[in-house]
Amino acid sequence: MNKFIEKHWLNLLGGTFLFTAFLYFFKLAIEEGWLPPAARVAIGMIAGATGLYYGYVQYKKKSNLSAELLAGLGSSIVYATLAYASFSKEILWSTNALFISTLSFSSLITFIGLKYDMRKLVLISILGGLISPLVLKAPEEQVFILFLYVFILNAVALYLSVIKNWPELRIISFVVTAIIYITYYIYFDPLDWKEPIFYVSTLFVVYFFGLMLASVYESNNFEGLNLYLGLINAINFIFWSIFILNTFSVPYALPTLFVALLYLFSSAFIYAKAKGSSIPPAIYFILGIVLIAIASSDLASYFNQGGMHYVINASIWLMLILVIFITGTVTSIQIGRNISLVLWFLVLIYWYSVAWEVEWVRWFGVEFIPFLNPGALVWIGMAISGFIFSHKIVEKPTNDDKNESIRSRDVSLT
Question: pLDDT category, 12, cuts 50, 70, 90?
Answer without folding.
Answer: low
